[in-house]
Amino acid sequence: MSSELAIHVKGVSKAFPVYDKPMHRLYQMLSPRAAKQRWYREFQALRDIDITVRKGETLGVVGRNGSGKSTLLQIICGTLEPSAGTVQVNGRIAALLELGAGFNPEFTGRENVMLYGTVLGLSRSQVEERFDEIAAFAEIGEFIDQPVKCYSSGMYVRLAFAVAINVTPDILVVDEALSVGDEAFQRKCFARINRIRDDGATVLFVSHSAGVVTQLCDRAVLLDRGELLSSGSPKFVVSRYHKMLYVPPDRAEAVRAAIRTEREDDAPSASAEPSSLSVVDREDARLVSLASAPTVPIGDSGSRGWFDEGLVPKSTVRYDTRGARIGVPYIETPDGRKVNVLHTGDTYFYMYRVNFHDHAVGVRFGMLIKTLTGLELGGGATSLPQDSIPVVEAGQTVEVRFRFRCLLDTGTYFLNAGVLARVTEEETYIDRLIDAAMFRVMPQPERLATGFVDFCITSDATVLDSSEVEP
Hints:
The structure is a single chain. With about 475 residues, this protein is an alpha+beta fold. The protein is about 25% helix and about 30% strand. It contains ten helices and 21 strands. The protein has helices at about 20-30, 70-75, 110-120, 125-140, 155-165, 185-200, 210-215, 235-245, 250-260, 280-290; strands at about 5-20, 40-55, 60, 85-90, 95, 170-175, 200-205, 220-225, 225-230, 315-320, 325, 330, 340, 340, 345-355, 360-370, 375-380, 390, 395-405, 410-425, 425-440. Helix 3 crosses helix 4 (about 125-140), helix 3 crosses helix 5 and helix 4 (about 125-140) packs across helix 5 (about 155-165). The longest helix has 16 residues, at about 185-200. The model is unreliable at about 265-280 and about 290-305 (pLDDT under 50).
């Protein structure tokens, strides 16, 4: 195994026996080797998985429920044996999988910290050195000396998380563990994982949240039905994952086949950083660079915004349509000019038309603004579900307009567009475009706001006389 690799998964498969009746398990145990297989059928949880994770890299694993994500993580952590293939791990693993699985309910929190810490590879003296930090992180106060069987489920999981996160691992494996505790505690968990990652640890991260994956991860993989369907940048993989989520059952296999053949070119470009950009991101970055050149505004000299033909996304993904099709979205000024280079503080309209080929019930429309890396900043819908358009007939066209004020920092942003309707009493997308349009916000040297979004904060600072300051 290369010294640059933290994890190397080669040809890994995992099959579980499924018994139609409980007694068949006994019959299998008593049968001769040649006849054992007649009493069960195999469920293939993983099929020939190849994954490599470099040291210091953060890899996101996405997929629908039952796709094999947790099985893969358990095999990497050594709690499950693969049916075929090999796994090599270089470094100490801290796994946030079944949090608190090693706790003894009769032991106190303090005793379980000592027990769990040693299970995770620390010596007793190391656990004692870190105990105060672990207890402070868990925020369970005096309950630390009470039996954990008296804990609420939240306290139980927080204590387990605090131990695992303070092991200082070479490899951190996280399986949807960030849903523990309230929002403040979750933010603390994210901050600690970021610190571990910034200190050079390798992170393997499973989440259903697209924003979390694009924000935390350097690379992502998509699992579905135990198969590795896609691998590449988080933005590329998450868009394919979303496409799988909303595909109609009769189109699922065709979409799987299409995703399986799509690839990103990982070859580094001349201007790429060491963690090379994908083809999609390189092309978008090139367009952003071109768009940064001086452009002559269309219209009079006081015009706030103009249209640059070079700002066209190359990462657009369309969901499988179900009786409706979104046209090409665009941005307009209030006086009707088409623009994609915007000025902060001005008002614009994001617009698209939807042609309905089939009868649709309970129709509403949405939009979303994202960063260049795919982080979701915000969006809106035309109505609440109960106030949706009752019926749109086949052959009709709907024009959608979203009025918004541009309060974003200088940079390039992407827009989604979507149509929702009730299909068999469940609301779902009948068409959706990921990265349907892109726009750039002009530089603003006078801008005082920080971060992506300007919250229109006002401020003042007053120098006080010494007589006005209380001792």
